[in-house]
User: Fold FKB95-like N-terminal Kelch domain-containing protein from Eutrema salsugineum.
Amino acid sequence: SLLGNTENILYVCLDLYPCSRWYTLCQTLTNDTSEEKKSSGYVLAPLAIPHSPHARPSGLVAVGSNIYNIEHSSCVSILDCRSHTWSEAPCLREKVSSLSASVVDQKIDVAGRICKGPYYCKNSFEVFDTKTQIWDPDPIPCEYSFVNPRSACIDGKFYVNAGTNVVPYDSKEGRWDLDRGNMNDHMHFDCYCEIENVLYSAYYGVLRWYEYKYSYILPLDLCVDLMVQ
Assistant:
């Protein structure tokens, strides 16, 4: 809003080791015969953001005009989209081998897996308050295994896939539950996102969406036809 924008702005991050490259979606304008500027489409424009740390999709979350980058090394960086500068935030307690982060009520929930040797692994679940910039002092236990976690926030709950199950955490009640639907079918890969409490995923030529206990499947080529129409 400080920049005069009335809509959300799309940022795209390309995961290129050892650093990441950032782009934003911009509208291109042309002058017609009446000398009025009209849109001719959209392009991805590269952003000059110096010293960008390495980023992975599972550790990127947006809160307001900030994008948080949570790394497996436990480091946390904040990209201010108004100035395109990075700053540091408090780190995770321990280094994790895998993680997934989502936002619930301006708090970042991070589910991860800590491995110290071939025979010792444990879950990690931490919550970061973006208002106070403080991690909750006590980690939240969970009996389910976060081997390669993927998460999403739906209807105010933090959902994590744990093996063959998806388990939601209700922060208001402070307890885990077991999802009785088939949400796990929509979180196999990283190609999924949540929009207005609906989980969308796309893989193997199929677009799926999940809403509470109902799921829908539509071939991607048919989706393209519908969008063109």
